[in-house]
Every structure is written in C-alpha cells, then in structure tokens.
Design a protein that fits this description.
The protein is built from nine helices and four strands. With 211 residues, it is an alpha+beta fold. The chain has one domain: NADH Oxidase.
C-alpha cells in the first residue's frame, strides 16, 4: 500500500489542549508556519486576513479569562490572533483596487470592472452589511488550516480556538471594529502529553456522495 506522508501529518495534528511551556518553537520554524499562511488562497485574491502574534505574558494573562480560561492561551509557545478586514472589502474601495490591480497591471478599466464583479458578488450574497464578516472570516480559516498543517509537518502542535469573547478581546487590543474584527485564535507549540492515536471521524461513505 502506498504511504501518504500528508495523511500521516493529518493523523498527527490534533486540537492540543495543554502545551509544554519548556519547549519553544524555533524562529526558523515559526517563519515557515507564517509563510504557509501568507501563501494561502483567499477569495478573489483579496487577502483580508491580518495576524497579531501575542508574546507579551501580561497580555496573554488578560486574554485568558476572555477565552474561557483555556490553558492554551498562556502555555503555547506562539499565540496567533487572526483578524479580518471589513470596511476595506466592501468594493469598490482603494484597498480592493490596489489588490486587484496587482494582477491586472495598468489596465484601469479592466480592474475597475473586476471591482464591480466583486461588488456584484457581495450584493448577490447579502455581504455588504454585518454579514461581510462571515465571508472574510472564511478566508482566515483557510489561512489557519494551511498554518496548522505546516506546523504538523514540522512536528508542532496547534489548536484552533473559537471560544472567546470577541468584543472584550477587540477592546483589549484597541481594534477599530469598523475596519477589522477578530475571528480566530490559534496557539502553536509542543504537546505536553501524547495523544491517543485514534481519530474519530465519520466514514468516507457518509462523507462523500457521488452524482
């Protein structure tokens, strides 16, 4: 049977609950994880996700009660807060114009038409109001997945955290919520204890339907 190393990586990855505080991720490995995020896909290539790396111990202690007192917040080697841009994505905007023009060179009429295509997508999917965060957040999840898989490849653990109080977290960091929102938190580090090898997933027959 052909061995698939990528599947082995996915078996290694799990939602690590407590990290070993005595083990630190090397700068070189963490840069690779960040690069995996930077190279991730995003809808229309707009790259709305921005990252905050939280290394200040006092900030982490303040974050912990706002994250349901989860141990990962203070035990992880690296703590990444994923933010999604909001107002800049409501095309047409200067931000969207800049991001689109990278691909289309100096042909202003072409990238202005593409901006309108993006605008049409937002209108058709009711994403111009508060719902836009539902779209931009999905781009952050794509990035987080790439980063967590890269970490697993390097033998580094992670845990995606949705359990946090968004408004207090945003106030803690002085975030202008008109411009951006916090959508996900992912700690990275090394597991304190070995995890059970068995993964609980639905069967392939239940997952996949062919038409």
């Amino acid at each position: 049977m052909r061995q698939n190393n990528f599947i082995d990586i996915l078996h290694f990855r799990h939602a690590c609950k407590v990290f070993d505080t005595n083990k630190k991720i090397s700068p070189e490995d963490f840069e690779l994880i960040l690069e995996a995020g930077r190279l991730s896909p995003s809808s229309f290539g707009l790259e709305p996700t921005r990252l905050m790396i939280i290394r200040d111990k006092n900030l982490r202690e303040k974050m912990k009660p706002l994250c349901w007192n989860q141990e990962q917040i203070t035990t992880a080697s690296e703590l990444v807060v994923f933010k999604s841009r909001v107002s800049d994505l409501k095309a047409p905007t200067n931000y969207v114009s800049t991001m689109v023009s990278r691909r289309m060179g100096g042909d202003k009429s072409t990238y202005e038409a593409y901006q309108q295509r993006i605008r049409g997508f937002l209108v058709a999917n009711d994403l111009l109001g508060e719902n836009i965060i539902n779209w931009t957040a999905r781009q952050a999840y794509l990035m987080a997945s790439s980063m967590m898989n890269c970490a697993a490849f390097l033998g580094i653990d992670s845990c995606p955290i949705e359990g946090f109080e968004r408004t207090p977290i945003e106030k803690l960091f002085g975030i202008d919520t008109f411009k951006e929102r916090v959508v996900l938190i992912v700690p990275f580090g090394y597991r304190l204890k070995e995890q059970p090898s068995k993964k609980y997933r639905i069967s392939m027959d239940e997952l996949v339907e062919y038409k």
